[in-house]
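User: Design a sequence. Structure:
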């Protein structure tokens, strides 16, 4: 909006000055700004704290102190890795935050404020208490306010859960967090910043917890939690057993206990997840994709149903008037295209709507230099998503503009043939009709003698009486034919989703036949299957319809929300794209929401993901990023779990057979570095477009379990044989380390299929790194020369480990396949019920 306005008048025609520059400065000095300290994003301090002050870092500190006490300094080799993990985690999160903060500034909410008598557009957080702002359709209310003049319809569903549009007029309160559906008003800010209603709600939400997390993060946190609980008693048992029962020295007992505990901690897994998400966020930012919530990366990757709006998603955001057509049912013999255009100019000049449709009409009027007529305004009724039309009452007549079906109602068949000609070509058609004895005129009891500014209109005394005598009939006048060009990359984008098995549902407020035609031209599969949502009277109807239809027309905002919920009840992961206030309810309920920055500000602030360049063609790249993150973390996480499974089971094995834990911390660190940490991070960077299937933790465990069991069985057998042959514990530890390395590379090979140059390179780098450390840094990592018999045992168990790993993998895969089959699961449940197994 222009910074200088010719006239800032309220609805009474009184000039609005707003605060002066000096008054603004005074309020800024007192801290009465709309800036809030409450944020859903981490601050720099929180990022540093969350990476540094962790439970596992405390455990590592305790282990470090214990090793220093006993003088086992070479076993502190895990420290550089832990410090490196912490530093890298902080650096990557700060880097991602910096990138997102820059982009968030570009997408920050703005407000039109009146100061010193002039209109200015500023960021909403720069507003101060007592500022006067102008609110119109599409704006999100940024602070608690009171309406000074004008009237708007607001939706408070994000605050109260009620989706009804509430009319607000002079003197009414406005709650921050709600959004404007229609109309325009001046409002004075009463509570700003941390005092506003939305800030208090946000504070309560943060106090209750971090909210829902992604499946991947949730399972990783559960794993970390249970490991954190288990390691304390296991560590105490192993120390007591070694020191008291086995008569080991204090140093040896501490070292063996530390090795067991160190092996059970998935120290790099959380870092891997954090870094992978941060890098993905930065890559998306470079593609003009802003993430309000990192969870959406994973959710988008799991989406199997994508709900899209027509306007701004399939088509370009702007509309244009293609043609004005006089209706064959028009009873006004003097009405021609010229007269119709003048009526349209009068209508668009006084109606308060500023949506895309009305902007297109105003642009048409301005482009063709159509002059306004001399009609005298009585009252306006803005467009609403529920009515799907607007009304203007002039002294000369009452007029309606909007969806033909909703204006004509039962008499729609009279004009349907005239409209279908245009709808079949994908045009959007609006009807202009005259209404005699309209409800709008009936409402003029209190305000019929006022014009738009609220003052008495000259020569209209008794207009309400004149109107009330009219005969109550809707007469079609003509049609406004509008077109939306389809986005250039729409067809290729929808083809991509079809190939990926993602179903598309087009949900629009437009006529279903028009939407269907546009969807066909965009290449959406099943676009010929459409339904008029106004015929869906109940939630049951909607639930049945989501299975049968691809295109939904004449959908209300509440129905959009119900369609999303119906799909979710059928166990679908649903993403919703939109650009208008009518999409917000559905976007908030969807598993993932995507907004176009060119749409309403309220939609962009409500969405988890914002396409800053409003290019829907970015969606395949966003999905690809999500799949890469989840698939690669899932694959790399299995490497970390191999070590955790082995260490836990080996600790149990040691306790049962009353033996001292056979490995040292430095040996665990060596294996972790070259068979888990480094390959895990390198493999996490590889492009991966595969669709995500199954449960995250189940998938990870199925990959890790065979290798973990192989490690335990082979190393356990080696330890038993070593005791039988009275081999030195140092020899057994070295041979066990080599066995773990062999099995570690087996699982790297397994999860790397199919191989490419990058994966061969990862494998080769880690083998060379391990050999180098073993040969040249052997003393640091407790790698000793071993006897011939110990070497022979290691070779035998290495070959045995290969066969064991192969057969355990086959067994686990078959078991997974059996329980993954729904028919087998049903049989098992029947047997459980039949034999009362758990009773």
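Assistant: Done.
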């Amino acid at each position: 909006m222009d910074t200088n306005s010719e006239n800032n008048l309220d609805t009474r025609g009184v000039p609005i000055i707003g605060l002066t520059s000096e008054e603004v400065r005074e309020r800024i000095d007192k801290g009465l700004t709309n800036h809030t300290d409450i944020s859903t994003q981490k601050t720099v301090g929180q990022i540093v704290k969350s990476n540094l002050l962790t439970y596992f870092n405390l455990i590592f500190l305790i282990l470090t102190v214990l090793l220093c006490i006993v003088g086992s300094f070479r076993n502190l080799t895990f420290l550089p890795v832990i410090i490196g993990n912490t530093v890298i985690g902080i650096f990557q999160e700060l880097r991602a935050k910096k990138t997102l903060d820059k982009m968030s500034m570009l997408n920050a909410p703005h407000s039109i404020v009146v100061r010193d008598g002039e209109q200015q557009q500023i960021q909403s957080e720069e507003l101060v208490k007592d500022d006067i702002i102008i609110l119109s359709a599409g704006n999100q209310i940024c602070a608690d306010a009171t309406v000074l003049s004008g009237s708007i319809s607001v939706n408070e569903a994000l605050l109260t859960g009620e989706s009804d549009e509430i009319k607000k007029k002079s003197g009414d309160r406005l709650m921050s967090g709600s959004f404007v559906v229609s109309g325009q008003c001046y409002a004075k800010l009463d509570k700003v910043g941390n005092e506003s209603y939305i800030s208090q709600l946000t504070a309560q939400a943060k106090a209750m917890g971090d909210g829902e997390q992604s499946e991947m993060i949730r399972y990783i946190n559960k794993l970390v939690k249970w490991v954190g609980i288990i390691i304390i008693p296991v560590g105490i048992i192993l120390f007591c057993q070694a020191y008291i029962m086995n008569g080991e020295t204090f140093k040896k007992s501490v070292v063996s206990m530390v090795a067991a505990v160190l092996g059970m901690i998935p120290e790099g897994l959380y870092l891997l997840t954090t870094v992978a998400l941060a890098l993905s966020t930065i890559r998306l930012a470079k593609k003009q994709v802003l993430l309000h919530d990192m969870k959406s990366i994973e959710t988008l990757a799991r989406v199997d149903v994508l709900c899209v709006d027509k306007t701004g998603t399939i088509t370009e955001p702007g509309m244009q008037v293609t043609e004005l057509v006089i209706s064959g049912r028009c009873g006004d013999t003097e009405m021609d295209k010229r007269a119709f255009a003048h009526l349209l100019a009068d209508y668009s000049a006084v109606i308060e709507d500023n949506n895309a449709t009305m902007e297109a009409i105003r642009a048409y009027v301005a482009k063709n230099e159509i002059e306004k007529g001399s009609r005298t305004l009585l009252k306006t009724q803005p467009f609403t998503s529920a009515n799907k039309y607007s009304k203007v009452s002039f002294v000369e007549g009452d007029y309606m503009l909007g969806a033909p079906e909703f204006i004509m109602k039962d008499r729609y068949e009279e004009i349907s043939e005239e409209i279908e000609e245009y709808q079949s070509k994908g045009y959007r058609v609006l009807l202009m009709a005259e209404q005699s004895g309209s409800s709008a005129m009936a409402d003029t009891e209190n305000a019929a003698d006022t014009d738009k500014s609220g003052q008495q209109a000259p020569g209209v005394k008794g207009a309400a009486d004149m109107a009330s005598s009219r005969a109550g009939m809707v007469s079609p006048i003509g049609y406004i034919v509008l077109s939306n060009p389809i986005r250039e990359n729409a067809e290729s984008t929808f083809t991509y989703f079809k190939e990926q098995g993602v179903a598309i549902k087009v949900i629009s407020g437009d006529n279903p036949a028009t939407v269907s035609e546009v969807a066909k031209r965009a290449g959406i599969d099943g676009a010929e299957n459409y339904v008029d949502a106004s015929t869906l009277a109940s939630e049951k109807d909607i639930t049945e319809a989501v299975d049968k239809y691809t295109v939904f027309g004449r959908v209300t905002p509440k129905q959009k929300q119900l369609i999303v919920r119906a799909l979710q009840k059928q166990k679908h992961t649903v993403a919703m794209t939109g650009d208008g206030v009518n999409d917000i309810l559905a976007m908030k309920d969807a598993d993932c929401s995507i907004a176009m920055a060119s749409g309403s500000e309220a939609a962009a602030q409500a969405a988890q993901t914002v396409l800053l360049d409003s290019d829907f063609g970015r969606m395949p790249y966003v999905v690809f990023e999500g799949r890469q993150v989840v698939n690669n973390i899932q694959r790399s996480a299995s490497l970390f779990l191999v070590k955790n499974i082995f260490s836990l089971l080996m600790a149990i094995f040691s306790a049962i057979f009353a033996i001292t834990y056979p490995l040292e911390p430095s040996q665990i660190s060596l294996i972790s570095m070259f068979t888990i940490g480094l390959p895990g991070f390198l493999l996490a960077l590889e492009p991966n477009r595969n669709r995500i299937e199954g449960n995250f933790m189940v998938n990870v465990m199925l990959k890790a379990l065979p290798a973990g069991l192989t490690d335990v069985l082979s190393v356990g057998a080696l330890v038993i044989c070593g005791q039988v042959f009275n081999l030195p514990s140092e020899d057994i530890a070295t041979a066990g380390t080599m066995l773990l390395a062999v099995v570690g590379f087996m699982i790297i090979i397994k999860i790397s299929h199919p191989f490419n140059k990058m994966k061969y390179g990862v494998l080769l780098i880690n083998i060379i790194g391990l050999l180098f450390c073993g040969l040249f840094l052997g003393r640091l990592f407790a790698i000793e020369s071993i006897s011939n018999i110990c070497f022979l045992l290691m070779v035998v168990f290495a070959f045995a480990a290969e066969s064991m790993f192969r057969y355990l993998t086959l067994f686990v895969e078959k078991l997974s396949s059996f329980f993954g089959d729904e028919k087998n699961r049903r049989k098992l449940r029947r047997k459980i019920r039949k034999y009362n197994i758990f009773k």
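The CA atoms of residues 22 and 116 lie 10 Å apart. The two ends are 71 Å apart (CA to CA).
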